[in-house]
Design brief:
56% of the residues lie in helices and 0% in strands. It is built from two helices and no strands. It starts with 20 loop residues before the first helix and ends with a helix. Bound molecules: zinc ion.
Length: 59
C-alpha cells in the first residue's frame, strides 16, 4: 500500500497496463519512490505514466 500522507487525495494514480514494459518500469519506479518517502518522485512517475498511457494506450 502507498502511504496515504504521500499522496494528494485528489491525485490520479494511473494503473500499469499488464504486459507493457514502460508501464511496468514506471510502476516499479513509483513503488520505490513511495517506499523511500519521495513524494515528488511519486508525482513525477504518475505524470509520466499518464502521459505515456495517453500516447500509447488511449482507445
Ligand atoms: Zn504502457
Amino acid at each position: 500500500m502507498l502511504t496515504p500522507h504521500l499522496r494528494h487525495p485528489d491525485e490520479d494514480q494511473p494503473t500499469a497496463v499488464k504486459g507493457c514494459a514502460t508501464c511496468t518500469h514506471l510502476d516499479r519506479f513509483r513503488q520505490r519512490a513511495s517506499a523511500a518517502g519521495d513524494g515528488s518522485a511519486v508525482s513525477d512517475a504518475n505524470v509520466r505514466m499518464r502521459r505515456h498511457q495517453k500516447a500509447e494506450h488511449s482507445s
